[in-house]
Amino acid sequence: MCAAGICRGATSRWTTLGGDVHHSGYNVNETSGPPVALAWQAISDGQLRATDAGSGAFLWTFPGDGVLSYPPVVAGNYVYVASMNVAYAVKPSTQIAGWKGTPGGWLSVAGGNLYVAQPNGTLSAYGAAERRGSGSHRCGATFTI
C-alpha cells in the first residue's frame, strides 16, 4: 500500500528506486526514523552536498577525502558516502563523520550491516558495532565476487 509517496506493507520492500516515489532512500522496513527532509548527492568536486528537499537551497557540504564519487545511501541516522579509498558515515545533525573505514566503493546497507563493493569484485562488510569504533575491523570476511 502506498500513501503520500511512501509504500508500506509486509511485502513492500524496495518497490521502486530509492524506496519510494520521491527516491528518498527511506524504507520503513529498514530505517528507524522519519524520512529525511534533505536531498543528498555526491557532486563532481568530490563532496557530499546537502540541500533542502523542498526548495533545493544549499545547506552544507561534507568534504570527506575530497574525491567522493559513489552515490550516498541513507540508513538510520546516517548518510553513508564513499570515495574509492574511504567510506564514511556522516551524521546530518553534526555534519561530521561518526565513522570511516577502508576501502571505499559502492555502498549498500542491509540487516544492520554496511556493505562496500569495490570495482575489483571485492565485497567488504562492516557490522554496527564496528561502525561505532575506528572502522579498522571488518565483520566476517572479505569476499571476491
As laid out across the biggest beta sheet, the strand order is 6-7-8-9
The proportion of residues forming helix, as a percent range, comes to under 10%
Poorly predicted runs of 5 or more residues: 4-12, 134-141
For the sheet with most strands, the description reads: 4 strands, antiparallel
- First-residue to last-residue Cα separation: 35 Å
Say what oligomer this is. single chain
Topology, number of strands = 13
Q: Determine the number of helices (DSSP H or I, runs of at least 4 residues).
A: 1
Q: Classify the fold: give the CATH topology of the largest domain.
A: Thrombin, subunit H
The H-and-E topology, N to C, reads as EEEEEEEEEEEEHE
What structural category characterises the helix and strand content?
A: mainly beta
How many domains make up the coordinates? 2
Tell me the Rg in angstroms: 15 Å
Tertiary shape:
globular
Identify the CATH architecture of the largest domain.
Answer: Beta Barrel
CATH class of the largest domain: Mainly Beta
Question: Overall pLDDT, averaged?
Answer: 73
Strand content: 35-45%
